[in-house]
Every structure is written in structure tokens, then in C-alpha cells.
Amino acid sequence: MKPTVIALAAALMLLSTAALPSLAQATTAPATAGAPAEAATVPVGQVVWNLVPLYASDAAWEAERLAILAELPKLKALQGKLGDSATQLADGLDALSNVRRRLGRLITYSSLKADENTQITENQARNQQAYSVYNQFGEASSFVNAEVAALGRDKVQAYLAAEPRLAKHSQGLTTMLRLAEHTLGLKEEALLAGAAEALQQPQNIYGLLSNADLPWPTVKIAGKTVTLDQEQYVAYRSNPNPKIREQVFKAFWPVYKAYERTLGAIYAANLRGTVFNARSRKYASSVAMAQGNDNIPDAVYRTLVQEANAGLPTLHRYLKLRSQMLGLKSAGYQDVYVPLAKTSRNYSLAEAEQLTLASLKPLGEDYTRQLAQAFKGGWMHSVPQRGKRSGAYMNPAAYDVHPYLLMSFNGDYNSVSTLAHEWGHAMHSVLSNAAQPFETADYSTFIAEIPSTANELFLVDYMVEKAATREEKIFALSQELEGMRTTFFRQAMFAEFELKAHEAVEKGEPITGEWLSKTYLDLLKRYHGDAQGVVKIDPLYGIEWAYIPHFYNDFYVYQYATCVSAAAFFAEGIGKGAATGDTALRDKYFAMLKSGSSADAYPLTRAAGLDLASPEPYRALMRRMNRTMDKLEALNAEHPGKASLPTPGH
């Protein structure tokens, strides 16, 4: 399997005290209007990242790759010696940590270059080389978990007390001891590490097929010829003209449907690889393995799915309100993205940055000052261009440099919100890196989406507050509701789909593209109230599962839903505190973000004031969603109908 969205594969994480962080992705690909720009036409520094701080050239990167490879035999030579003394353990873990640190920087450069344009073969080849080094590192250090487990808790505690240099490795050692029952013998660990490269191929194949090779149709939309690829689909699916929306859906989804068998086989291979790892490590299930690595209670995942289903009447209320405001007698799935009010304007990147800074004032002057400076640092690639990886992410793996961000900024509100989201990730890494050594600077995905989604909520609250007209207020309120729909309900639906798919493999059931589409379609209909006449779901749209790259990062997406619930808690509380001068919750919030992986994620969130294994955070989010709908309904009652909507076709 390829590294998970925030951390690299769990096997590598257990080698020492932290994993190599990787990509923190936005919930959906940002919308892109019009034809993609070419990178060469965009002012460098404003919208294209500067990779020179990583390596001055491709040649410098290649020299470092060879240098890291030369270190691997030295790491392998540590086998059998870690437990000889506290000093030997500290020396060995330091050596492993130093190579991981360099490897994180190596992979950051290669993956960023590869994602700029997936059609450049040289960059894809370089990225494959980087992950080959990562896999070789995993093989060379595969003995560590077993050796630490063999030492036992008493001896490890004695070594920690005797050697101060082990303090930064304490959490990693504790985790290895906790997971000792899932740690295999030396030969078996080496075998699993050697299999990692083969098991990550389904994700690689899917990425190339989906981003570079699918034959996108060319269609005429409002007199304009458009290549309806992923970004253009996102741009046009929210068109105010219902005929255009239907045209876009009917043209886009058959492309995935035509490859249903192949895409199904690719994802089934990914599922079987995950189940293989779970069984090899003696976990009861795939989800238990995913939760076990970060010590997250199983109740968190199960409670989320339970509460999302219990909250479906709230989602259905929102979807019916949308249909009423859009003047739709019968809503279809193609209607769920159209905005309920026109925006007053488009935004430049600089304006989006200023809006983000203004909305985040409740987080304090130090936070906004650091963020304003980071905006100027060449950390982000935001220009849309052909072949660029879809979606958005923040990559924090270059601990000694700074985070890097990718998105496609097109000037609409969704782009502004995506910018605030990804920079929430980046500032999380900035805060954690400043407070923690490399070994504990990484953070669990369980916490990772809290600051990013909190930033989105701060932004939308600011937009509601500053709205000058009824239309602007309707737009801002509807954006808040849409954020809760996509970040809570949509991600919970994804989580339920993932759980069903993995459980089917675990039961030995056959997995085909057709089965995946049927399973997804059933969920799509239930969540959108098809049987109740809320939103009619065309069977074609069951193929949407094949569009979601996050499914290749097993059991990741549920954390968007848990984190938006946590983010709502923090945004509301910190906002109230800023108004009254009470900074207690803000202090707890920053303490959590600065903690990195110095403790397990679940206790860190509880220390900050909430329990995501209980129903209450999710029910509180439902209450917020209903309060927002009350405001929107009141505004709509003033002038019911479609008066505030964009003009169809414009």
C-alpha cells in the first residue's frame, strides 16, 4: 500500500517514534472554471511552489537518493544489537530516525514534481524510485518492532530512565510495545516489508488511469467546447442551468462506467492487500488494524456511522430545502452541487488569502502573522493545468523545510474555502514542528482534519457576519450547510461503503465493479432519501465510488466526519471566547495541535474537551445544521422562490 494521507504505511511508523507524513487531501477536488491554464503563463512565486529549498536540482535529488541507499546496509547491521544497552538502543533509533528524516524530504520532492503534471514520465519514474527507496528502508529496518517487543516493557522502561536521549523516542517505543501482539518474527516482518511495494501498485495504477489515461469526452456546453475531465466536471456540475448539469452528469459518469470491471479489479486488489496485512498481523479486521495503529477506540468509527444514519432526517430536511429554493419539482443527484445564491464576485488569490486571515482572527495575532508570512513563501502550487493531480492536499513530510500545498485555485468561493482548509493543515505542521522534535512532530489523521475544517467554519462564519445583502447571507449560510453535507454526511457515507467493502473481502465474498457499484448505489439512495422522494438517484451514479481516490487510503475518510464535528466544537467555542476575552479553549486547541504524536490522538482530543467515541459531538453538529437551516428558511420566507439564484446559463 502507498503511504496513507498523513502518515506513511503503519509498518514504517512502528519502526521508530513517528511516520513520514505524506499528503493531507481536501474532501473533494476544488472546482475549476474554464480551460486549464498552462504553468508557463503564470507568474512564478505567486501560484507555483518553489522546490529549491528541498533540492537545488534533479541532480542534487539523485545524489541524495544514492546517499540514502548507501545508509541502508548500516541500518540493517543494527539488527540484533538494539537491546544490548540503553546507549545502543538510543544510537540505533537515532540512526533510523535520521534516515527517515532524509527520506521524507526525498519523497516530498519527487511526489510534488510528479503531481505537478502526471503526464511527464520522467517525474513519475523519479517518484517510483523514491518509493522504492522507502520500501527498501522498510525492509532494512523491519527488525526493529520485533526486537523492541522482545525487550519487554520493564527493560524498555529501565532504558528510558537510564538514557535521556531516548526521551524523544518514548512514544514510539510505547506504541511498539502496545502492538507487540501484532508484531511478527524477524523473517515474517522482513517478508511483509518486502511485499509493500507490490501491495501499493493498485493505488499507483488507479492514479495513472484516473488522472492521465481515461478518455474524457468533448462536449459543447453553452456553445463552448469543453473536455470534460475531472476538473471540468467539478466546474460545470454546479452550473445554474439544470439542463447543463444533467448534460454534464450524463457525459462524465459513463466514462467511469465503461471501465467498471477494470476499476473494480484494481480496487478489489487494494482491498485484498489490506485484508492480507490485517490477517498477517493477527487483527480481527481491517478496520481494527487501521484504528489500532493510532489506538483509536472502535466505538469512534461505529458511533459515527450510527449517528450519521440517525441524522439522515436533518440531511433530508436540507436537501428538501435546497429543492424548494431552487424551484425543483423533482431533484436529481445532478442538482446537489448547484449553489443556492449567486456570489457577488470572484476572488483573486491575494483576496482569498486576506479573507482567510480576517476570518481567523479569533485564533490570535501570532497565528495570523505566521500564516501571512507563509503565504509569501512559495509553498503552494495553485494554478490549474492539464495533467495536474486532481484535488488538494498539504504535504508536511519535509520537516527541515516547510509544508507544501497543492490545489487548483479558480476564484470561486469553493477555492477560497479549500485554500483556508489546506493552510489549516499547513499551520498545524508549522506549530507541531516548532514544538516537537522530528520524532514526534507528525500527527495522527484522527486530529489532522480538525484545524483544516475549523478554518473552513471560521471562514463561513465570517462570510455570514460580513454579508452585505440578503443574497450574500443566503450564499454564506448555504455554503456552511453544504460544508456539513459534504464533510460530515458524504464522508460518513464513504466510511460506511469502505466498511462494507472490506468486510465483504474478509468474508470471502467476490468483489467486482458491478458489486461495488450496487453497494454504493444503495448507500447513495439511502443517504439522499430516494425512497422518500427527496432526491432521485439514477442507477448510473452508483459508479461514483470509482471517482474517489481516498478509498485507496484505507479507513481515512471517516476522520473528515469526526473532525468536522470536533471543528464545529472548537470554532464555536473559540469564537465565543474571542468575543469575551476567554482564551482557555483556544489554549487547549493549540496545545493539541502542538502535541504532534507525543501522545495517542484520542486522549489528546479528550484533553482538549471532547469525546469522539460518544454520540454528543455528532448530535451537536446536527443541532448546528438545523439552526443554520432555521436562518436560511427565514431569509427564504422573505422572498420565496428563485429570486436569489444565478441566472441559468451564465
Automatic annotation (TrEMBL):
It is an enzyme of class 3 (hydrolase). CDD domains: M3B_PepF. InterPro entries: OligopepF_N_dom, OligoPept_F_C, Pept_M3A_M3B, Pept_M3A_M3B_dom, Peptidase_M3B. Residues 147-214 form the Oligopeptidase F N-terminal domain. Residues 1-24 form the signal peptide. Its cofactor is Zn(2+). Pfam families: Peptidase_M3, Peptidase_M3_N. It comes from the Bacteria. This is Oligopeptidase F.
